[in-house]
Fold:
Amino acid sequence: MSKAMVGAETRYSQVEKTALALKDVARKLCPYFQAHQVTVLTNQPLRVILYKPYLSERMLKWVIKLSEYGIKHQRRLSLKGQVMVDFIAELPKKQAHPADHPGKQWWTLHVDGVSKVSRSGVGLIL
Structure:
């Protein structure tokens, strides 16, 4: 989904832009939001800001609209896992072998293998 912000929307604070994006996505994907529990992971303090007693009129309208869906807000604590996912996603599909390309420098990836029952961790050295 994409939407270009126009006019005054470009001058909204980061939290307002995040709330606007959430409202637009909820509107476009209304059947999914009604059928499933949606949890929003963000580094913005949305829950704290959206449920303050003093909000601007537009934010209050968005909060009322979003309250229909029972959306949970959860703080995104770390991006470490996402870094590893992005790294793997960007790897070429066919891996070349160093012997196939003599004279080229190759990077070696060492992973520390940290893993727990409740969460996993990653340590990378290139």
